[in-house]
Amino acid sequence: MAIFNRKVYAVIFCTLVVVVVVVVTVSVMIYRASLYKRPNCPEGTFEHAAVAADNVNCSKIATNILKKGGSAVDATIAALLCTSIMNPQSAGIGGGAIFTIMNSSGNVMIINSRETAPSSVDRTLLKSCPEKPSQANGSKWIGVPGEIRGYELAHKLYGKLNWTDLFNETIKLAREGFHIPPVLGSYIATINETKSLKKLYSDKNGNLLKTGDVIKFEKLADTLELIANKGADAFYTGRVAKDLVDISGGDLTVKDLESYNATVTEAWDVPVGKEYRPLLSFILNFMMTKMTGSYKTMFYDYYIQALKRANKLKKCIRDPNFTPPEKAEEMTDINSANNIQDNCTRTKNNITCHESVGTTHVSAVDKNGMFVAVTSSINAVFGSKVYSPNTGILLNNHLWDFCGRVNKSIEEISPGERPPSSMAPVVLKSNSKPESKMLAIGGSGGSMITTGIASALINDLWFRKSLKEAIDTRVVYVDCDNKVNLEPSFDNNVIKELEERGHELGNRFYNVVNAVEKKDGCISAVSDDRKLGEADGY
């Protein structure tokens, strides 16, 4: 009987153990599921990761990279490579880029792969500055391309997939061909500068291609495949480098390409309203000091004042490796910035209007919480118009960006110097605990970049609009002649009142903002409708 009891007790004990194990296992599963359970997110948002690029094909290619376990850096590189064929008038491997990267730990780094002035640069080049960047055609305006070195450094530090994985889908599209998207099609009609570029965008009968036609970039596919298999050195040495030197007529040298380096620095970590880009910071800080009224016209009046003052600050910006820079903190402080503006322009002359256009931007977030904002450009539409038929590379004309200097008759360009830029890729994180809002944002449109980003941030952060509503808001742009340009469909009542306040109004406009935002566990991604973009994610 005792033996029977011991057996019963043993069975009961084992049963209890099994029950406890099952309960614990189920509890752990429920807990884990709760961690990954999709919150009550609005329709159209994403759960894991997202990308906002200028073209839907590029956003989808980048999303595929994310689904394969790639980082946000991997995704943005893949998106930019795709952009080099979908919107080659804006960006490509013959240009340069700036990455702002925040890893999952919240540390933010800047990778600068902007072009540099070549060793043989004409130091008096500024005396021959044309009025518009589109007129800065030819080899003398080419900066040493940094795009691929930027990709290389970003991937080395933050990449997860193999380097070749980032190139494959774009190479396939470039080789097999695709239908010309509307934005590219609209610019092809303007090509008339060089025979080689015109031939690239013409059919076998010599007629320019148009939206919807199939186009192939087979030589560029060969070059991208070479870089994918051999690494970034394949661009900066060997036959590709030699060809770029040849088509530049000697304005670039083999040494220029071999010695190019991208740089990595820590980001300027400051409160909202003081992002690391001085002009954007100044605008936001100025607005914060003036946000005492609730009237719409009063807001725009102050906003326009901030933009006009920021225009003066533009002329004070230099490559810090060649000219002692103004302290960034002082440039964003209202009182200090006024002194900087005065000191910069007081005794100068020969100041001409300097406006730039072009560029592309990609924002991304991955499942591990890495945020990336990267802006890339070849400057003017189709850059310098110098195209290499052997490699498929279209080179930039970023030396024109030096033309904004206040006294072009005496100032010189130094070899290795980086031109000033309106690029402002921004990563924003909430200071609340736990962090409830993270944002990667940036824009294209040359001189209008800071205008667009500032507008989107003000409407998103201060006026509590959704990310899409903030980006869609009609934009005010103040050009370098201090004329106020209003986007079409702007509020007519505000227009009338701004005129009464003495603002000279115009209608020049081109601006695009792309952003991804994670708020309370929900990811929103917006590619600006102004460039017919479409974001993607999963």
UniProtKB/TrEMBL annotation:
Give one GO molecular function term: glutathione hydrolase activity
Q: Which residues form the active site?
A: 359
Give the matching InterPro entries: GGT_peptidase, GGT_ssub_C, Ntn_hydrolases_N
UniProt keyword terms in alphabetical order: Membrane, Transmembrane, Transmembrane helix
Q: Which SUPFAM superfamilies does the entry mention?
A: N-terminal nucleophile aminohydrolases (Ntn hydrolases)
Q: Which residue ranges traverse the bilayer?
A: 9-31
The UniProt entry's GO biological process terms, in alphabetical order, are: glutathione catabolic process; inflammatory response; leukotriene D4 biosynthetic process
Residues involved in L-glutamate binding: 114, 377-379, 401, 421-422, 446
**GO CC, one annotated term:** plasma membrane
Similarity-based family: Belongs to the gamma-glutamyltransferase family.
PANTHER family hit by this protein? GAMMA GLUTAMYL TRANSPEPTIDASE, GLUTATHIONE HYDROLASE 5 PROENZYME
Task: Tell me what this protein is called.
Answer: Gamma-glutamyltransferase 5a
- Tell me the classification of the organism that encodes this protein: Eukaryota, Metazoa, Chordata, Craniata, Vertebrata
